[in-house]
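Notebook B, p. 112. Complex prediction, attempt 2.
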Amino acid sequence: MISWFSKYFPNVVQLGWSGDAGWGTSIFQTLFMTFWSAIFGGILGIIFGVILVLTNEDGIRPNKFWFNVCDKIVSIFRAVPFVIMLAFIAPVTQKIVGTQIGMKAALIPLTLGVFPFYARQVQVALESVDQGKIEAAQSLGATVKDIIFDVYLSESRSELVRVSTVTIISLIGLTAMAGAIGAGGLGNTAIAYGYNRFDNDVTLVATVLVIILIFIVQIVGDFFAKRLNHQSR
Amino acid sequence: MSIIDIKHVNVDFPEKENKVVHAVHDVSLQVEKGDIYGIVGFSGAGKSTLVRTVNLLQKPTEGEITVNGNTFIKAGKQVISNKKLQVERRKIGMIFQDFNLLNEVTVVENVAFALKHAGLNDEELEKRSLELLDLVDLKDKANAYPVELSGGQQQRVAIARALANKPNILISDEATSALDPQNTQQILDLLKKLNTKLNLTVILITHEMDAVKKICDKVAVMENGQIIENGELRQIFLHPKKALTKRFVGGSLETINTLNSLHLDTLNKNEAIYQLVYSIANVTKSIIIDLYKKIGVEVSMLYGNVELLNDEPIGTLVVMVKGDQEKRTKTVRFLKQEEVTVTRLDEKGNPYD
Ligand SMILES: Nc1ncnc2c1ncn2[C@@H]1O[C@H](COP(=O)(O)OP(=O)(O)OP(=O)(O)O)[C@@H](O)[C@H]1O
Ligand SMILES: [Mg+2]
């Protein structure tokens, strides 16, 4: 088995497991970037999504000013292509992380790249909560905080899991691009050690690993989305 | 002082092209403590919009609203802080046509949600929530999710939730419209029981007059954003004035249909049609036989019906009386003595002028 593998995938084996170019390292880098930017982008996205829904015209605290501010920020960041964001945000990254390259530096553009996309999805998910439930909660004397947590976020939780799954999957795609600023990861392996060196076996394995990762995320996401849903029989 | 006092309330909704919909137009309504006040009217009459101003789910454009002695709206402006409004809302329960339960938490958690600010510890919270479920006979479903319940059961959970903070007012906006007759009856009985037991004031919006007849003491009829007629149910039922009210009262409408189907054409001058409405309890003897014996008029029945009005059986008779002017005057006088409401009708069933 091992010898068969090293016969057909010589360059894959040569990269090794640990070390700068190793498979273990690049898998870790991809997971690291996906995880932390999902956390930071997720928090930002939920905050923006919630504010957009609350301050909207027919929200529970209509406020044109804050709605417009958040709406514009989300729209503008969403309009910037990610590759350009990487370059554009570099000076800011330098200030915050202390370096412009590497896995940690990539978290800033990844977070900023993913949050507007997620914020819009959160907004749609929250708006799908039946207005009647909001009114019933209001009629019970619920506070704004109660309505955010116990009605909006709780009632749309299955939908939120679904859009989070979609977001994490597209985030995995973005981490591959982050390889461009030396962030490493499976995407970087596929390009730098596979494509650029004409080592197609490396590209193939890196791609398969990314696909497996995406499948896992999708399956776990679907499981919880279903498990958490009690909206209808 | 009235528990709910609505004065000259207007609710306008802006539409495109600078037009506005006057959903509620200069409505004043006083609801007294312990009333079960029915509000009827066709779809779009403004019933929901009006009652939603009571707990400010809908802010009125103009008018004054005072509930439980606290003024919420004065001259169209909110004069209560949002914080205080939250507290006041807990004294005004509301239930809806589509229940509006939280689907992602269990039945008992739905009730507990309402008690979030009641200052109870976990143990007390659970105890009180279960007590409330017991009140609506659903203790055994405490750990089920709302989707696992029937419509009627969901509505009972909604009632338990609405009553959690011991409100003294309960607003029901078409709460039985999505239910079958049996469940409707159950919910109405429950509302009546709560009214008697807890002295709960109930506002019951419905387009089924049957529900009103079963439990209401008072009723308001709405049309085009206005209350066109309101008062004691008995009074409205026995003496409806507006055409729409007559349609809702039902008996009158049936009378009209029956008379039209008889094709009486023109009556001769010694004949007249009367509608007699009376409480069965008050009229025990046979009035028709009495009329013949005492006054000598011949009375023939065209239509008859008995309905329960808030548990009181009310009879409606439409009769043709044959006799001269003098005898007919005596007839009417006799009937009025017997506490029968007499309305002379023409051959089409409309009030005779
Ligand atoms: N949020 C809103 N925006 C604009 N127009 C509205 C709004 N809510 C109600 N209306 C309009 O106000 C009028 C009264 O509506 P309302 O819902 O109060 O009627 P209703 O008597 O409760 O009817 P139904 O029996 O169908 O529930 C209708 O013409 C309706 O279209
Ligand atoms: Mg309505």
